[in-house]
């Protein structure tokens, strides 16, 4: 049978807590089969900013929370460096189950395919519909393409403030790409520069937005 996508698992008129609960039982694509658990978004329901990553990593899969592993620690540091309160932002992922290949005892991250991103997009859209954020920050190509379409290129458009009908979007690189970069210091600085644009956008009074 063709994977049905997440839409049929989403309860009507749910709040975020109910959505999170329902997502535990999602079989919208095959990724639930091997992952430990669904990793839903986390953060305050009245957050002005929503951060969208790719998919949970190894540690997130075990702990059930987004961005709590090495990429999350780098993200925390960068947010603190620009003065964005991590506890005030809602953090989620384009895909809510960990996709990996096993190499011996290790589980190696495998990038989700378009089918999985599309299957899981109903959860992301349901989160965004309830949160109605002012600003969406996409971390990496998968998160950005989930919101801005499959032809969006982070490499040429990072740091740009993009208006959509529902919210403004700023895309930047994924924090794990900073961890892998040959020049980590430069990559970190560039990441922080993009987050500074996010900070500025949030600081603007409503009339200028
Ligand atoms: N990478 C992501 O994109 N999301 C997480 O939650 C962790 C690592
Ligand atoms: Fe459902 Fe998304 Fe998990 Fe696929 S990755 S099973 S669509 S929650």
From TrEMBL:
InterPro entries: UDG_Type-4/5, Ura-DNA_glyco_family4, Uracil-DNA_glycosylase-like, Uracil-DNA_glycosylase-like_sf
TM region positions: none
Signal peptide location: none
Entry annotated with the keyword Glycoprotein: no
Gene3D superfamilies assigned: Uracil-DNA glycosylase-like domain
Protein family per UniProt: Belongs to the uracil-DNA glycosylase (UDG) superfamily. Type 4 (UDGa) family.
Record CDD domains: UDG-F4_TTUDGA_SPO1dp_like (cd10030)
Protein name, per record: Type-4 uracil-DNA glycosylase
Occurrences of domain Uracil-DNA glycosylase-like (ranges): 40-196
This protein's UniProt keywords: 4Fe-4S, DNA damage, DNA repair, Hydrolase, Iron, Iron-sulfur, Metal-binding
């Amino acid at each position: 049978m063709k994977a049905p996508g997440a839409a049929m698992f989403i309860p009507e008129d749910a709040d975020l807590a109910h959505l999170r609960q329902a997502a535990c039982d999602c079989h919208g694509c095959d990724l639930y089969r091997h992952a430990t658990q669904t990793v839903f978004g986390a953060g305050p329901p009245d957050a002005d900013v929503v951060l969208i990553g790719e998919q949970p990593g190894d540690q997130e899969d075990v702990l059930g929370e987004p961005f709590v592993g090495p990429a999350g620690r780098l993200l925390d540091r960068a947010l603190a460096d620009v003065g964005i309160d991590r506890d005030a932002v809602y953090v989620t992922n384009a895909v809510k189950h960990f996709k990996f290949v096993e190499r011996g005892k290790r589980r190696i991250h495998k990038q989700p395919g378009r089918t999985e991103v599309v299957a899981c997009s109903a959860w992301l859209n349901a989160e965004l519909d309830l949160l109605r954020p002012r600003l969406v920050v996409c971390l990496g190509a998968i998160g950005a393409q989930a919101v801005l379409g499959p032809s969006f290129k982070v490499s040429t458009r990072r740091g740009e403030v993009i208006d959509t009908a529902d919210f403004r979007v700023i895309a930047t690189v994924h924090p794990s790409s900073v961890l892998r970069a040959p020049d980590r210091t430069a990559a970190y600085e560039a990441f922080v520069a993009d987050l500074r644009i996010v900070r500025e956008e949030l600081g603007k009074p409503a009339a200028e937005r």
